[in-house]
Amino acid sequence: MGEPMESNEMLVLDRAACLDKLASARLGRVGITSGALPMVLPVLYRLDGDRILIRCPEDSALMSALDRCVVAFEVDAIGGEDEPARGWSVVVTGMARALAPDAVEVDPWSIPSHPLLPRAGRVVEIRTDRMTGREVSPPDGAPAQSPPMWGTDSPAGRSVPGGT
């Protein structure tokens, strides 16, 4: 049994820091409802001011699920092998709506899209009126350690669900 791991420090991010984090990434996850069931899909996006822009194929199920609906949007970054205990996450809950082509003030082609998706499509905006963010790092002076994984022994030496 090793030394008990100190807790990582968690910082609640303010709105400006959340927007900075959103601007630093391109791949996020959008949470929608499809057939009364929750679904989370990866999407490429661009932050434009305080709104998230996604380009979707016109007649797609994603477009139908996004247009004029409240959705969740999440983006994160987790430390690599050097710093596995570092990371951040931003979650947005907001109204999504498909923009009319003449209402898009940015070049729609500047919004990332997967090469396999058709180039045509509509731009969907998600408002960032409700947003929360967290950043996790090891305590000052402590080595970066990963928290115990599900299915392994806990720091106290007791087995956790899924362990042996």
Give the averaged pLDDT, no decimals: 76
**Uncertain stretches:** 1-5, 146-164
Element-by-element helix/strand order: EHEEEEHEEEE
CATH superfamily: Electron Transport, Fmn-binding Protein, Chain A
Distance between the ends: 15 Å
Q: How many domain modules?
A: 1
* Gross morphology: elongated
What does this protein look like?
The protein is mainly β. The protein has a single domain, classed as Roll (Pnp Oxidase, Chain A). 9% of the residues lie in helices and 40% in strands. The protein is built from 2 helices and 9 strands. Strands 1, 2, 3, 4, 5, 6, 7, 8 and 9 form a 9-stranded antiparallel β-sheet that branches. The longest helix is centred in the N-terminal third of the chain and has 9 residues, at 15-23. Mean pLDDT is 76; it is low at 1-5 and 146-164.
Task: Describe this protein with a few key phrases.
9 strands, disordered C terminus, 164 residues, mainly beta, 2 helices, Pnp Oxidase, Chain A, disordered N terminus, 9% helix
Strand and helix layout:
Blueprint: E1 9-12, H1 15-23, E2 27-34, E3 37-44, E4 46-48, E5 51-56, H2 61-66, E6 69-78, E7 87-98, E8 122-127, E9 130-137
Antiparallel strand pairs: 1-9, 2-3, 2-6, 4-5, 5-8, 6-7, 7-8, 7-9
Summary of the model, kept short:
With 164 residues, this protein is mainly beta. The chain has two helices and nine strands.
